[in-house]
Design goal:
The protein has strands at residues 4-11, 16-21, 31-38, 43-48, 52-55, 63-71, 82-87, 94-99, 107-112, 120-126, 131-135, 139-142, 150-158, 168-173, 175-180, 183-187, 192-194. The chain has 195 residues and is an all-beta fold. It has a 5-stranded antiparallel sheet, with no helix packed on it. Mean pLDDT is 83; it is low at 178-195. One of its GO terms (cellular component) is receptor complex.
Amino acid sequence: MPVKQLVNNETTTVSVFLTWNQPDESRSDYTYRVQIANTSSVVINQTTSSNQLNVTNLTPGVTYTFTVFTRAADNVTESQSVSYTTCTVPGLAQNITVTNNNTTNSLSVNWTIPAGKVDNYTVTLNGDVNRTITTNSTQVDFTDLLPGRNYSITIQTASSNCSQSAAPVIEATCEYDGIIGTELYLYVEIIQTEF
């Protein structure tokens, strides 16, 4: 009497919404035990009488295995298990700043680590110059840029084998403010959105 078609309907940074089909010989007094385990072998059990469960209070960027057992009315007898493994969405890079360090051809991007697990960041610069840097630090520098140009910067977070990613978008607007001596000064305006 195991469940059928255990699937993940929605994943966020802190939750996974599971649904499944009841077994063919399902009875109204059956319940379902859902075992939740992460890569650190931390196991939590939740019980429901429904064929769905929204598992909350998870950690961003962590892989979890969800195992569902059909439980008989005696609360002892259980079916063979059905499992599903997925990961929560990694958190967004936080407190992102872009500075030009008083140069005319470079931008420095800094951010802080989000909650949860993140293995690396992919920082992409788009504009008249296009570049991508993958790093496990919280700072990158883009050099040899063109003065007075607009650039958009995307920071994508990744964790282990998680296919999901979170990407804030930063638009860095670099403008001439005039010439002082032989140095051109750039100003950077930061606009952050989330998608």
